[in-house]
Design brief:
This protein has 209 residues and is of the alpha/beta class. 38% of the residues lie in helices and 16% in strands. Strands 1, 2, 3, 4, 5 and 6 form a six-stranded mixed beta sheet that branches. The protein binds flavin mononucleotide (FMN). The site of flavin mononucleotide has 19 residues, from helix 1, strand 3 and strand 5.
Length: 209
């Protein structure tokens, strides 16, 4: 069993990485591996709403832009059993490059295997904006038919340097608890295909016509 964790921070080994490491370590105690993939610091384009991905057959969908990490993440998501999103808070929201990744990753990929993957989300913040940013991350999961691993508080850890994160004892425990719940979901959904609901053809309205 394997989980893909996306580190959406500009810092490869910063606070968001620390948070994802806590989740990864807990998953390991539940016999689940976790690959933490950093989105890097190269420019990442936002979605240009070209709809090229929507015209591709299920199982082959990818973003029309093939020159950054997004399509590699979509490919990777087809081989894993769970997903975790991690971002630092920038101006009380998702960090910019991560927003670009997520818009394209979920628009191109969520009709495929990303949809239905058990998933969780973590946020790292110095002070304020943690829960609004977590809400933003959860929007991608709730758009995509994903069973979400929650915790007993919101999965936000505090700090501005990596060594701060372990000192946020309640935050760390909240992440461990989320990881346990994610492992529980993944194990409970081993036979997910057997019970997967058949989806109705999409009705798409824009409230005008
Ligand atoms: C551009 C920018 C905007 C930020 N905005 C906020 C903010 O709105 N609220 C906050 O508490 N911290 C803010 N921070 C601090 C980071 O959220 C915090 O240091 C985070 O833990 C860094 O995680 P990282 O080491 O993975 O990058 C901001 C940092 C940057 C670089």
């Amino acid at each position: 069993m394997k989980v893909l964790a996306i580190n959406g921070s500009p810092h490869e080994k910063g606070c968001t990485y620390e948070a994802l490491q806590i989740v990864s370590n807990e998953l390991k105690t539940c016999a689940i591996d976790c690959d933490i993939v950093h989105i890097g610091t190269d420019p990442i384009r936002g979605c240009i709403a070209c709809m090229a991905c929507a015209k591709m057959a299920p199982g082959t969908q990818k973003c029309a832009f093939d020159d950054d990490i997004v399509n590699a993440l979509i490919e990777r998501s087809r081989t894993v059993d769970g997903l975790i999103l991690g971002t630092p808070v920038h101006f009380s929201g998702i960090a910019g490059s991560m927003k670009c990744v997520l818009d394209r990753f979920f628009y191109a990929g969520s009709k495929d295997r990303i949809g239905y993957l058990p998933a969780g989300a973590v946020v790292s913040v110095r002070r304020t904006g943690g829960s609004t940013t977590l809400d933003q991350l959860l929007h991608y999961l709730t758009y995509s038919n994903m069973p979400i691993a929650s915790s007993r508080y919101w999965t936000v850890v505090h700090g501005s340097a990596p060594e701060d994160v372990s000192k946020d004892l309640e935050g760390v425990q909240t992440l461990r608890h989320m990881a346990k719940n994610l492992a529980w979901l993944i194990n409970s959904l081993k036979d997910y295909k057997e019970y997967m609901p058949e989806m109705e053809p999409r009705i798409s309205t824009n409230f005008i016509r």
